């Protein structure tokens, strides 16, 4: 049964425990010890909800800043809203419609925000709660919204439309005023044609009664709100993109589509006071400069001590082809052109004051780029940028895979942080990050979490993900071990991918030993060891492996005898290290086919390796008789055994990375030995005999049919899909567990390989590791995804591992190390004979629990009939363990262990794309994540306890900040009518004055709010108490004069919640969101 509605889980609401799912098939004989394990996990331990979203907002479209609260808001083309405060305070919200956000407007210091969307809706967000919610929405039916303006400390929002009209919305009730400024009345007879959409609205900083309206065609109107007519009209023949006031209200500046700026004196409408072309080439004999690209936005900011700043985006000359997008800062006589890495979506100048009629004192510029957020320090010479503390670089190179680890060793994050700290860039601003609003949540988690992301350029990033935050710790560039081809023509013709030859496909990491292994797209594997010391590696250790897959599907000419399969012992073709001086001896076989060459070339010069991850060994698969190596599909490393194993659709290879030798190199079919259920005929490796002419011809046909990596032939091949090192029973007759490797394939087979390891210390480096198939074969439906082992009590048996120690030690230490046996944390081999283990195997279709050594399947669960599992993980939760699965049909399910009882089944994601499928992973303690967009990680929890603690852990966006003093207007100015003019807008726009708005123009939609929203509404912008506070301010009482208690109560959302109940009783006829 499904939990609640699909929508519920999608909106981060909670989805309860699973309904009646099919009971697990239990097949163990009665009275067997195996059934006695007490399982503690129940459905009520599980609940699914989204926790946090990290990363750069994908496809941003709008920007706003609250200068008092110091909170930044970004809207996106898919209707997302991201709010940023001090580092660690972040929040993600979503408009249900998914329409693009075209503009955002804070109600400054009120804990609220208005969003305008491309579907002509306006929404009021309450930010006084940890999870912001919409209090009201307004949908325009007949006109399209193009520009909004909300004056500071006003409740009347001006909304400009495509038709050139301006409507006025009361942000408290979210209703329209009857006061409308019609375009024809605004321009009267100044122009014969329609002036175009409204592109700008603002009030004169010194006179709230005068509204400046910019129309796209080039006309600007100064409208007198009281007399309802235009005071001045300014006409210009170039289209307008933006308008900005000088704070004294006597001048304004416009930016135009021909790359010019015009500055106008308010009282001289006939022609601009000055025209500037910031990037125009000044021609001789007074000719007009050549036109430039449009200036998309301009801001005009004054300073007490010096010249004003004019800041603009766009406006470059047309001959700057290939020039990067620029922000231009003009200050007095100097003009600085700041190049950006991506195109500019919007920018805002941060100023010391929220009051438009005071000296602005700009101190920074926030520039929102298509794929980055940049803050520029205006106060420092050369305008340096601030170091960005938010985790916005997830997508620096596209993410190709990720892994998630909870409950890591405590020293791991500090170790990664210290090596990562050396990688920091220099030259940032010395100042503190200016977006500093909000408060951190309470940390209720004590364990550390690490996320590792692999990227298209071969880089790997380690992130500290503890307590729902994210911070980059360390970055490793795996590509630097390879020779870079300078240009396209110079590229080795051995490439099997057109671009990103270094892209990371699989990451295998052992947190305890810190050993790291990666598989890349060019069929390469690199093993890394962690060290705190810098080393220079003279010769990079490397191995080349020929992995063959040959079925006797072509008639053998001349009735030639097929030689027997080499018996796997030390491997069918053991190789030692390939000397660097002469890489692969032959680059093509005798018949001219590319042979024995890897896809990438390892550098043959010494490599300086900084502290952090350092190369232990590079392994590359090579071309075989004109066939490129196939991409690696599975990978595992074990630090206690010193082994790495990997496989693809051709077969499997195992490497001893301590001795740098290949131990096993088998085609998938050879793994079965004589037990192959598919009756496939293996054929000897081609290199052992000279192919005859007839075969060559057929070979060419075969290649032309299957030169693409995803040819039918290779798709149907059996690939290695899961690998797991463990210490368990390998055969039915075993009396004690021993080290082995369990191998799972895409055809649902599990095979066991026995590992015979030499003793530790010096002997480990001298004696060979012997590997041999055990003959044990198990079968499931669908490709094998994951394997794990439980002991006789039902607890997880982790694979053996070493603990980390510095590898580059001095001589005395080395002597001690030789005597020291590696610490192998694994079950002792002196287990009683009667003690059994359980293998847990999860495939794309089903899960089985198999008792060892008897190999009886005691529990079986068919996970999905119609879909398939994309990711399955055996994870710990609440001192117990379970199997967590994510299905291609969007379901998230959990099952108890060992009995495989269904505990949770929630329809979470209706649409699963390749990116989600490739990045989804579960980890311990009820955590999971996936890449929700190319730039963002979505984290979720399936733990009921975490869902309950989430509210505490989330940061607060709204904090208690007193609005700064208004600028002193001076005694005489006030007396003689100079200075700023205020206006009673209520008198003009209220219903009594302007009448009701046309009902068909827009409809009011109450917001969902949520229970938290009740508190929020009682405490928020629209609450009765907020009005009381405004009334107090108007009576000229300063908050400082009130009793502290009252002031705190008026501001703090917490105490509001206590009043919320009384408020609701008072308004029980009205719903709270209609206040």
UniProtKB/TrEMBL annotation:
The organism's place on the tree of life at top rank: Eukaryota
WD repeats: 233-268
Basic and acidic residues composition-biased segments: 802-816
Localization, UniProt: Cell membrane; Cytoplasm
Descriptive protein name: Syntaxin-binding protein 5-like
GO cellular component: plasma membrane; SNARE complex
UniProt family annotation: Belongs to the WD repeat L(2)GL family.
Record domain V-SNARE coiled-coil homology: where: 1010-1070
Keywords, in A-Z order: Cell membrane, Coiled coil, Cytoplasm, Exocytosis, Membrane, Phosphoprotein, Protein transport, Repeat, Transport, WD repeat
Compositional bias ranges of the Polar residues kind: 569-579
InterPro entries the record matches: Lethal2_giant (IPR000664), Lgl_C_dom (IPR013905), LLGL2 (IPR013577), V_SNARE_CC (IPR042855), WD40/YVTN_repeat-like_dom_sf (IPR015943), WD40_repeat_dom_sf (IPR036322), WD40_rpt (IPR001680)
Lineage: Eukaryota, Metazoa, Chordata, Craniata, Vertebrata
Gene3D superfamilies in alphabetical order: 1.20.5.110, YVTN repeat-like/Quinoprotein amine dehydrogenase (2.130.10.10)
Keyword Cell membrane tagged: yes
